[in-house]
Amino acid sequence: MRRVVIDGRTLSYDDVVAVAHHGAGVELAEEVPPRLARERAVVDDVVDRQVPTYGLTTGLGTRSSYALPRDELEAFSVRTVRGRANAVGDPLPVPVVRSAVLARVNGLAGGGSGVRPEILTLLVALLNARVHPVIPEVGSIGAADLVQMAHVGLVVIGEGSAEFAGEVLDGAAALRRAGLAPAELGPKDGHVLCSASPLAAGQGALALHEAAAVLTLAQAVTALTYEGFRANTSPLDARVLELRPAPGQSRAAGELLALLDGGALSDPRNARRVQDPVSLRCSAQVHGALHTALDFADAALRPELNGCGDNPVVLADTGEILSSGNFHTPALALAFDTLALALTQTASISAERMRRLLDPAVSGLPANLSPYGPERSGFAPLAKTAQALVAEIRMLSVPVSTDPRHGAHAVEDDSTNAALGARRLTTILVRLRQLLAVESVVATQAVDLAAPPVLGRGPEFLHSAIRKVVSRLDDDRACGVDVETVGRDILGSDDVRGTLRALAGGSA
Fold first, then answer.
1. For position 409, what pLDDT does the model report?
2. CA distances from 441 to 147, 245, 257, 354, 471 (A)
3. How confident is the prediction for the chain on average, in pLDDT?
4. Which residues share a beta bridge with 313?
5. Which distant-in-sequence residues (6+ apart) come within 8 Å of 404 by Cβ?
6. Cα-flanking dihedrals φ and ψ of residue 310, to 5°?
7. Where are the beta strands (DSSP E) in 109-268?
8. For residues 280 and 229, what is the distance between their CA atoms, to the nearest angstrom?
9. What torsion, rounded to 10 degrees, do the Cα atoms 348, 354, 357, 358 define?
10. Does the predicted model carry a pTM greater than 0.90?
11. Structural domains in the chain?
12. pLDDT tens column, 283-318
């Protein structure tokens, strides 16, 4: 079993996926415990000297001017967790919970929180023992993920609920069955357990990893449609693109040409038309924009995943605890919104390419790709499914980072909705993969009917993979099950994705 070493600095999206989806183990780098011990000594010193410090020796939010009695600090930590565990809705999926806990573990390991080392050790143990706190899906407005992460804090102190071995138990029972004991919270620990934006970071990491894979799938399915349509590849020519170097378009065009390499379409003179519909002709521009949106999201997410989002922060070198705005995530929320919009553009042209394949006046193929003529429906009804998927994706792409909202009166007067932005990406990506499955089923039939002399390596691989699980459409039949099969077994396959990535010019 793979193990992911946590140092607070180098957590990757692949690491998050390994822990969240594949149960990889977690261990702390050797430099982490000494780092935490040094920072905790600063916290203890500030407490002993009774220095006014937000969330440590004072209250939180509008109560930050209230000095806490020394003998109340431990109880205040526990009340902080209990008082913020107010999320509602269905429980988040286990992989999302694991990604959030892992993101918080990494944030704590990197330093700045001043947490007791025992707390971090227990969070690591929860992951390794597969004790998963039950976190309701709604509660964060992006002013840190306080309300939802407090549910993790409840399990840490032996309260709340957790899933263990397929059963939802109260927190104390889950810990006991896993051979773990609840932690005793010291000053600041309760606030640390609720702080930062690990839910946005963890679920965002899963979304970005999947979005990159879905972009490769979109490129491969587009190449398959190119083959069925006998599209003109001259718009992908590097000399054309250099005349207006829009962000990402040359990269996307290069990947499409790599997928088409080895086929007749590599020579634009083999195209059926001089100029194709925009959904084919400008696919590199649209997919290039998605590449650019992914780069923007990556630049915004990596500091969140590998940084300290606490407030206040502990500086061990100087012995200070300073107020911080590091919990605020406007760039991350904006990046998630941008990515949602770019995915919507990609979805829109997928549906349009599919519709062009069904139109004999444009495609030169039989109507609705039925070999029996107009008395059969062929794939026409699937166009409705494609449009329904696009409608849902478009609805989910509405920006959330500009939504007006506030937290504690007078002091928390802005927030970002970053966690919501990450959560809706998950649904968008599911729907987009289903849409690409629709296009790929239709494009595979188009290739069969067009019967090109030789396919490019990418379309040839994808066509063959699809035909192993879905037969050619002759007479009308229910095609929804075909779409589901392709979406799950082909477009959802790690092996298929790896091969397509390699054929597009990336590492397998």
1. 63
2. 43, 33, 21, 9, 10
3. 95
4. 322
5. none
6. -80, 160
7. 132-133, 136-138, 161-164, 167-170
8. 9
9. -110
10. yes
11. 3-195 (1.10.275.10), 203-503 (1.20.200.10)
12. 999 999 999 999 999 999 999 999 999 999 999 999
